[in-house]
Amino acid sequence: MKLYYFPGACSLAPHIVSKEAGIDLELINTDIRAHKLEDGSDYFDINPKGCIPALALDDGQLLTEGPVVSQYLADLKPEAKLAPAAGTIERYRVQEWLGYINSDIHKLYTPLVRQAAEDIQRAAKESLNTRFIYVNNALKGKDFLVGEHFTIADAYMFVMILWANHLKLDISKFDALNAYFGRIVARPAVQAALKAEGLA
Ligand SMILES: N[C@@H](CCC(=O)N[C@@H](CS)C(=O)NCC(=O)O)C(=O)O
Fold it and tell me: Is the pTM of this model over 0.85?
């Protein structure tokens, strides 16, 4: 399988999941601004959405949407416990987090990375702060977002906190969030994915 990715982008979450699961993926570096591959070919010809992550399956299908790609990878290796079994309340809890991160956190970064007008950036930062208050409270007394194991939701949340640090957002007051980040970043699979993306 091939993972279309860009270093440090949201595709890092399914990349981490693959490392945690012990699934070897061929990594295809994708320029998400120019929508080109390294050989100059047009990424829209591969994924008409133009976004990463995208997972090219061995049967020729393309799977898109990070939360779905991560669930697919996790379900290939249930013994790694990266996603609870489908149909259980724990699986819905993981999906609840994936949905929240995808729609209520991830996209708040767009005005910051695209350097939108000052007032739009300020509003995005305020909303991110509100979201991180919620996440920090949810993490108090817990090692992971759901249950006793690292899950695909943690891989995705890790990337959201990584971006906050990269953009120098002030998240220093969020003790539980920062302790959680420290635990996740120390995981060998996370280090391996960061290294493979040239970020370690
Ligand atoms: N709905 C998609 C969005 C993914 C997404 O926003 N990817 C960004 C990088 S983090 C991207 O590829 N942006 C390029 C573009 O918008 O053209 C998902 O959740 O996987």
Answer: yes
Query: Is 105 touching ligand 1 by the criterion CB < 6 Å?
Result: no
Instruction: Locate 199 and state its tokens.
Output: 């970020």
What are the φ and ψ backbone dihedral angles of 74, each rounded to 5 degrees? -60, -40
- CATH fold for domain 89-187: Glutathione S-transferase Yfyf (Class Pi); Chain A, domain 2 (1.20.1050)
Q: Is 98 in the pocket of ligand 1 (CB under 6 A)?
A: no
Which sequence spans correspond to the domains of the chain?
2-80+190-196, 89-187
pLDDT (average), residues 155-161: 98
Q: At a CB cut-off of 8 Å and minimum separation 6, what does 94 contact?
A: 83, 84, 145, 146, 151, 152, 153
